Amino acid sequence: MPHVSRRAAVTALPAGAATLAGAGLLGAGSPAAAAYPAILKPTPADRFVDFGTNAEMRWDSVDPRRYLTRQGRLFVRNHTSTPVIDRGSWRLRVFGDGLATARPATDPLTLSWRDLRRLPRTTVLSVHECTGNGRSFFGTQQATPAPGTQWTLGAVGTVAWEGVRLRDLFAELGIAEDAVSVQATGLDPSYVSGGVDYGPVRRPFPVSKALRDAVLAWGANGDDLLPDHGYPLRLVLPGWVGIASIKWLGSLEVSRSVLTSPWNTKWYRMTGPSYAADEAPLTVNPVRSAWELSAGARLRAGRSHTLTGRAWSGAAPIAKVQVSTDGGETWERAELRDETRAVAATGAVRGHGWTRFSHTWDRPRRGAHVLMARATDADGRRQPLTSPYNDQGYFFDAVVRHPVTVR
Ligand SMILES: Nc1nc2c(c(=O)[nH]1)N[C@H]1C(S)=C(S)[C@@H](COP(=O)(O)O)O[C@H]1N2
Ligand SMILES: [Mo]
């Protein structure tokens, strides 16, 4: 792949270091791994919690006045490392027996950046969230830790994505009436784990989702994508688990049979004692909420505090948020700031983002308190009080107990 290169800093590393880090053979704590930039944008400690190849947004750094999440603030989830891709020589390859005229992978249709820019454009607002967001609470709140990145609640953001609808591209290229599956593959290095090379990050999804609202995005909130977020082009499947939105998109296979990849058979489906062996791959994100405060935040006694936060769902806008300042004994309705109409006013034409909420806490008494927020979406889905355990720690959607101290 001549058009995929590494930043100059990387070439200064000893030969093979990049490969080793990409293969996961260097521990996160080893000096070579620390020097290897898996993420290229700055992730300062006051805005991010750094997990090496992943970084989460700190909720106490969120500006309550800003609705959208700037790319500079957005969480990053990389299986390996961010590739630097030249947009001019980059091509999207499209192939498969699901095209109106079948094409093998060895003889794909190729689309350049300019080709895509000729198609009708769209902007779609979506809550962008990792399947494992909240995973750490399986351990800290339910005493059943799950392996994987110990995200708190910062693997989420709301983004206005700009690009073309996959539906419009398919209309242009022509797809077979009985096409059922689309496989999206990234251009990042192959993912190696436990000595197994799983190949490039890729995940299939149904043609029905492609035709409903899938977007090939080149921009976020009015800017080109940053390298870390998929430049020059990423797939966006609004409302679905983050892994569905393949970054650094290199190819789309359209098929008349159901495609699979380890990212929908091995990972990103529920596994564990209470799950069947044939659980469906995870698709729509659940309902969650977070306070714009650090865990253990200190608040001044003797005054009134306006507490703010956000709630979101992959399925629908948020209809209601209930809050408790006494660890769940009593609940009140929070005020919501972003009704559907207000969200549309951000300039996005379709989709939905999160909803900001606020609650006035009048002169709380000194001492330790537990804040809780519990959201319900417009489809009637409500956050539970506990999340059923699964081996990979996906979908922690329970109400989070947020400690604060008043003094
Ligand atoms: N090519 C590629 N696409 C990918 C990934 C990846 O590692 N490689 N990670 C996925 C996962 S698990 C998530 S949560 C989102 C994260 O997107 P972001 O880093 O832009 O926030 O991208 C998805 N798309
Ligand atoms: Mo993810």
Automatic annotation (TrEMBL):
Domain Oxidoreductase molybdopterin-binding: 79-263
SUPFAM superfamilies the UniProt entry points to: E set domains, Oxidoreductase molybdopterin-binding domain
Segments forming domain Moybdenum cofactor oxidoreductase dimerisation: 303-392
Gene Ontology terms for molecular function: heme binding; molybdenum ion binding; molybdopterin cofactor binding; sulfite oxidase activity
Keywords associated with the record: Metal-binding, Molybdenum, Oxidoreductase, Signal
Heme listed as a keyword: no
Cofactor(s) recorded in Swiss-Prot or TrEMBL: Mo-molybdopterin
A GO BP entry: sulfur compound metabolic process
Signal peptide positions on this chain: 1-23
Entry protein name: Molybdopterin-dependent oxidoreductase
Annotated source species: Nocardioides flavescens
